[in-house]
Ferredoxin (Actinacidiphila alni), 104 residues
Amino acid sequence: TYVIARACVDVLDKACVDECPVDCIYEGARSLYIHPDECVDCGACEPVCPIEAVFYEDDLPDDQREHLAANRDFFAELGSPGGAAAVGRVGADASLVAALPPPE
Ligand code: F3S
Ligand code: F3S
């Protein structure tokens, strides 16, 4: 799967959302999250993020590897809705992201 990592937090550019052919990029409160089971690894989201927040899981920098689990954790309660547009903005985050310091 592809993973949205640290740089997205409190930025949420959302250019990636428009590129995803299966609508599997979901919006939390402080970040977006890629559904690890719905993502088909097409890779379209990775180059369009202006701040390079998207990585293939094997390419995550070592200090951001925990975001792989965070992207999965985000869906613990949502399950697999099968499309982000119908879900809309979820006012919560994975615990890893929620615990990050607020923007300056
Ligand atoms: Fe975030 Fe980049 Fe998408 S900032 S919302 S991963 S375009
Ligand atoms: Fe969508 Fe990116 Fe996966 S465009 S299918 S989330 S690689």
